[in-house]
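Lab channel / #folding
Pinned by the channel admin:
"Please post every new chain as: sequence first, then the structure tokens as a reply. Keep commentary short and put observations after the output so the thread stays searchable."

First post following the new format, from NK:
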Amino acid sequence: MDTGLFANLEVIILKLMFDIQGAQTAGSRRRGIGRYTQDLMQALVSSSKGAEDIYLAWNKALDVPSDILSMPNCGSKRLFSAPYGALKRGRFENNLFDLQHEVNDCLFRYNLALSRCKHVLFSSLMEMDDVNFVLPRNLNFGPLASSYAIVYDIIPLLFKDKYIGTTGFDDKYQAHLNVKMGADILFAISEKTKSDLVNILGVNPERVVTIGTGINLNRFLGPKTSRDVFFEKFGITRQFLFFLGGDEFRKNIMGMVKALLALPPHKRNALQLLIAGKVQPEKKSMIGDMVRQACLPRDAIIFADFISENDLLQAYESCAMTVIPSIYEGFGLPVLEAMASNTAIIASNNSSMSEILTDEAFLFDAHDCAHIASRIEFVLDHPDIVARLKTSYKNILFNYRWERVAERIYQTFDAVD
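Reply from TO:
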């Protein structure tokens, strides 16, 4: 990548500035938004269409995504580094638009003017927990450029009793949301997200484009922890169910545990449940009490907390099934990840997950533990039907290629121009 700020600007070509803070903040860089940002960046660079010059706008006050910044130029495309965020939060007051943000926002706009990019894409504007995240004053760049913001979901507005009202959260969320809603075009990652924007926030549907998401199949060809090492590391001794998501409300960890307990004794005793993701100590204690009261084996539930990429790939590959009992997902990337690992999967029939997994035999009501348990039994008892489901994975995954996401973005740029 050319790390000199901006070169060869006299040539009039299509240029894109991509703000990649979604791959930098502590809250997102190792989660779905971080992976989405990195995979989309690769797709935008690899596409034979669209922008010829791509400027990566990254925040110097956050961790530098070296794997992105070291990406080579691809074909006729050229990559440029556009750093900003030189002023870290220090002695300034903790206001949304204090001196730190004003200076950094000015740096961003200066780089944009200098680069002559006609399109500015923001990977994530809802990073409220990182004090060094730079939230622009607004996304109105006038004649300089058109602005685009990726929208993953509006979950806090859908579950206000769980999110809105938390100390300090309301004002922050609304401030970030107001900035994002000011984009010229909103890119929704699923049809469900677009529907929420239009029907709940009243956004003009002409301003919302569903770009979808993709699955990076190369991840599943890379190295993974060996099965024996993985089983020994986490204390797995028999068939296990895999739950990814921790104890965030919408991931429905208690529904998952109750579904396990609802299985017939001989089936639940023959299973383990591997839970990946952060779970608070008090929640672990509560689940432990439930296991003891149900007289399950002491190792029935395994808390893996955050697991490495290599462990994650082995978890998908070796589990009896992946269970996704989420109450809501903006997209539900684990559905595609499980398919890429060729593992059995059952998921909630709500939000965007049923856009991907359409066979109702493998869908359930997330609020009904008995229904979840019945689907677990169905998968365990009908390997032939599961095998037929797996034959559909290839076609499903083909429809979720990152190159298609990049094409939709570039098509939108063409329409705006």
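NK: The mean pLDDT is 88.
TO: also worth noting, The CA atoms of residues 40 and 402 lie 7 Å apart.
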